[in-house]
Amino acid sequence: SGTTANQFLTLVRAIFCFDTSTLGSGASISAATFSLTGTQKANDLNATDIALHIAGATPASTSTLAASDFGNVATTSYGNVTNAGFSVVAYNDITLNASGISNISKTGISKFSSQLADDIKNLYTGDAGTNAEERFSGNFADQVGTSADPKLVVTYTATATGASFLMNMI
Q1: How open is the CA angle 134-139-144, to the nearest 5 degrees?
Q2: Whole-angstrom distance, CA of residue 101 vs CA of residue 40
Q3: Band of residue 7 on the pLDDT scale cut at 50, 70, 90
Q4: Where on the phi/psi map is residue 100: left (φ > 0), alpha (ψ -120 to 50), or beta?
Q5: pTM for the model
Q6: Which helix (H) or strand (E) holds 120?
């Protein structure tokens, strides 16, 4: 934050794309979990509602992000993890609600964003202060290896048999 009360100096959002086309158009999704391996967190602003929310996104391309994609995020929360519950050494599992489940493409690419509670609600509640931060950081798919990549686990029924499928970020 800067020195002006109730105003961000810098705001960062992340966009995640998963190839979920193998689900197939006939799949019936019963549950889904978005998981992000945490690396850092901060609440120097003493915000009253600090949480990392998952929402939809509509980037122009699913393989290359552009600056214009910053505004291509939804404001309906699909689930969240609080600052107190956010691990900086392990996966943070966020169970998706009905809106999050309906955002999963059964025949294409499922697109999600991560946003701070203040951002998704458009209601900043923190203290002003030079270089104070409200932050959640995690690993992305371009990190070395795949053991900490973001993941989407979808529980679905394709026909008469239930299945759980791990979606890797593209």
Answers
A1: 150
A2: 27
A3: low
A4: alpha
A5: 0.85
A6: helix 117-120
